[in-house]
């Protein structure tokens, strides 16, 4: 069968629904009669009220009550026991008062639930806003599966609050590095090695390199202390000239030969050793400078040590150059070992980071999951203030709702006491004879002769239809119109009476549903049935909680309108069916006759509110 769209709950005591061709009128009455049936597992009646009684007149009601040879008796009140009657009236009044109090508490509880719903929405929005701060590319994978506010809130609340040392920004950096690596490991960082550093302790640098003592000039040169100056000056004079380059006096024979004996091969060898040491030292410095210029060594931690190393190198090279120029001087080079050691300690720290990162790259999936776990711990801590505030408000709301529930339970207990009083009082002042008399009087009023309702003598009070000449199977001998009328008269008694004297429910909580009380074969009784409905169902207007009348009969529709206008509170609807049934509000003047009804069907088809017959199931 087709499903039905949800319909807003009517707000008036009387609801008149006019059906058109192929609508869902019968489906609606069947659902209200048996809402628990498997055909209606997707349908609901709102609001839920255990005190509500739904009494439905339709073809199913007729079959259930008149296929058997007798019908259950309907208990109605009679006069005679004033004390019991007064007790009944007092209990009904108190039960009605309690029902109003209960509904007030239910409404208050629902408002608290709605208030909590709004608070939940606000809390979810706050958590969602926090999520947006960290759901960029790096940490986006942490939020997979939590793409709604509700799921995100459920996840956060499932995470236990623990102390955290991580920051969300730091975790984002870790994740970004892993994701960006794409399986590629970072190259290791070579340590700094400066082999020429041993030159800084070479004994030759402390040695005063002077000429040979074999020449008669050696003593004079040593006494003057200017051997370095003389060695350098030899390169600028013409040794073929026998005159002194300064005073122009003749020089002693073999003067330059004697000077050469002072600066012999041993002296030259020492100077060459100094030059080699300097060249080797400069090569080592160049290697260090090239290494330190690489990207891996540009971290801030390296820079002060590299700067100090560069200054030391420059000073040592200057000292070496001075030693070569003045071999007789003694020099001491500054040690670079401590600076290189400090640089290598930084290299070691960074290398450990690289090794750890490369391990993560090799096991990227595992480490991303670890980052995710740490992320949720950190995110939970970041949201703790919001969660604490939300839980505090929820707890306060829950306390109030529990108070309402306890008050409702207390009212239920009080209501049960009144129901027991009602049941006992009704048992003392009810019988089925009054309903029999009412049905037979209505039959006479309608001019239906030849059969009547009598009491059947049995353990349980029941009715039976009889004819003067026939006692059994009388209902089968009736015309379809007569069947409709007698079943409807019985229905009116059920509405106003009780099938069970032990029932303690209020009749004012009943909802009455009538599906076509006028058949095509009983149209002569339109006026009478409409009058009965008004007198026995609609008047007074607080007799029942709500009344639904469904019909396709325009004559009956307009006849009922005359009475409904007296009732003052009613609504009119028209049922249409496309893929689903729908309720369309209407005015009393919208449909005056069958001609207008047919045109309305055509308009519904044009507006897509009808279902083609070939599509019906």
Short description, anyone?
It is built from 19 helices and 11 strands. By secondary structure, it is α/β, with parallel strands linked by helices.
Descriptive report:
GO terms for molecular function: heme binding; peroxidase activity. It comes from Pseudomonas sp. 13.2. Residues 371-539 form the Plant heme peroxidase family profile domain. InterPro entries: CR006_AAA, Haem_peroxidase, P-loop_NTPase. The chain has 617 residues and is of the alpha/beta class. The chain has three domains: 14-75 and 432-615, Rossmann fold (3-Layer(aba) Sandwich), CATH 3.40.50.300; 107-183 and 363-400, no CATH class; 195-361, no CATH class. Helix content is 53%, strand content 8%. The protein contains 19 helices and eleven strands. The protein has helices at residues 25-33, 59-66, 82-132, 149-158, 168-181, 218-224, 227-233, 255-262, 265-292, 303-325, 337-362, 364-382, 384-429, 433-445, 474-477, 480-496, 526-538, 554-567, 594-606, and strands spanning 14-19, 53-57, 71-72, 76-77, 430-431, 452-456, 462-466, 510-515, 546-551, 570-577, 581-585. The strands form three sheets. Strands 2-8-9-1-10-11 form a six-stranded mixed β-sheet, with helices on both faces. A three-stranded antiparallel β-sheet has the order 3-7-6. Strands 4-5 form a two-stranded antiparallel ribbon. It is rod-shaped, with a radius of gyration of 55 Å.
